[in-house]
Design a protein that fits this description.
This protein is of the alpha/beta class. It folds into two domains: 4-78 and 181-364, 3-Layer(aba) Sandwich (QueA-like), CATH 3.40.1780; 82-166, QueA-like (Thrombin, subunit H), CATH 2.40.10. 19% of the residues lie in helices and 26% in strands. The chain has eight helices and 17 strands. Helix 7 (323-332) crosses helix 8 (334-346). It starts with 42 loop residues before the first strand and ends in an 11-residue tail after the last strand.
């Protein structure tokens, strides 16, 4: 599902559509290498009005929301998508799965990739015995510089079983030194395997926080977006309107659509937990009406976007020049957001996947249909 209105090139680049306008300087020590423990003790920058913000802890979330509010969360689960194999002659190969195409066929980033042309094979498992897994290069992918790999399992195990045994949950490249268990890079409600990166805004929730949200009358529902290359692929065009997002698989079920409609009909607010939830819900509403949707979306949201579904957002702090930073800018404005980022840096917030969070409340939006 695409959004051609927001992907057409412009003859000149406005400030809001220039890639350079989305850069900021982040000291390396601000990049979190480990999550907060407990998870809900991370910091939370609450954007409460068009001009004001407050500093909280994530565990304060029930006090910032209203009874009847609806949180929408992404229940995708990160798979062990990083594999180490070798060519039949013995040279080492690293594979990062990105996206499935059909049965046991995946788009993957492969290192080193230059010598792995169509027809080449990669073996996984012991070099001294029959491989547990074999991948054949089917084709190259120009958009990602990756390879389409067709997997076979000589020992008759399923690909999922072999991945659980041989694979590793991939951490982002900016997490360079950590010894945390893989489950720390999963939300506590991760249920549907398929992502190659975590929906990190959800990493802050704990069972205790869910219980307190229940007591406060705050609802929740779940969609699925399998986070893939579309979420973290860098924007490389100077005019951001010319960037095309890679598609990601989405499931917005009828029960969630009904719950959102009921919430709005009763005058309450829908708060997305993470940018993946935003893309799923807004992608399912590109006809002008939110409808159940199961398929792929490549929706790219940046300033000028006309919002359809969400009223507020919980999100982590994002990389300079990223499509995620542009999405959040579309909600509260680029200059406001970069000012808040500078405040967060000055105040010692921790950035990126294992870092702290921000909540943009509906009261912070100057022009919103539900305000």
């Amino acid at each position: 599902m695409s959004d051609p209105k927001h992907q057409s090139p412009h003859s000149s680049i406005s400030n809001h559509h220039s890639l350079a306008a989305y850069h900021y300087v982040l000291p390396p020590e601000c990049i979190a290498q480990t999550p907060a423990r407990p998870r809900d003790h991370s910091r939370l920058l609450a954007v409460t009005s068009p001009t004001q913000h407050q500093h909280h802890r994530f565990r304060d979330l029930p006090d910032l929301l209203q009874p009847g509010d609806l949180l929408i969360l992404n229940d995708t689960q990160v798979i062990p998508a990083r594999l180490w194999g070798h060519k039949p002659a013995g040279a080492a190969v690293e594979v990062l799965l990105l996206e499935p195409q059909k049965t046991d066929r995946w788009l993957a980033l492969v290192k080193p990739g230059r010598r792995l042309k169509p027809g080449a094979t990669i073996h996984f498992g012991s070099k001294d015995s029959e491989p547990d897994l074999i991948a054949q290069v089917i084709a190259t992918d120009a958009d990602t510089n990756g390879r389409w790999l067709q997997f076979t399992t000589p020992k008759q195990d399923s690909l999922e079983t072999v991945l659980q045994r041989l694979g590793q949950v991939p951490l982002p490249p900016y997490i360079t030194h950590t010894d945390i268990p893989a489950e720390h890079y999963q939300t506590i409600y991760a249920e549907k395997p398929g992502a190659v990166a975590a929906p990190t805004a959800g990493l802050h929730f704990t069972p205790e926080l869910f219980a307190r949200l229940d007591q406060a009358g705050i609802q929740r529902a779940f969609i699925t977006l399998h986070v893939g290359v579309g979420t973290f692929r860098p924007v490389e065009t100077d005019n951001i309107t010319q960037h095309t997002m890679h598609s990601e698989w989405v499931d917005v079920p009828p029960s969630v659509v009904k719950k959102i409609q009921t919430t709005h009909a009763r005058g309450h607010r829908v708060i997305a937990v993470g940018t993946t939830v935003v893309r799923a819900l807004e992608g399912a509403a590109q006809s002008g009406t939110l409808r159940p949707f199961r398929g792929k979306t490549n929706l790219f949201i940046y300033p000028g976007y006309k919002w359809q579904v969400i009223d507020g957002l919980i999100t982590n702090f994002h990389l300079p020049g990223s499509s995620l930073l542009m999405l959040v800018s579309a909600l509260i404005g680029r200059q406001r957001l970069l000012g808040l980022y500078q405040e967060a840096i000055t105040s010692g917030y921790r950035f990126y996947s294992f870092g702290d969070a921000m909540i943009i409340l509906p009261t912070a939006l100057t022009h919103h249909k539900f305000s």
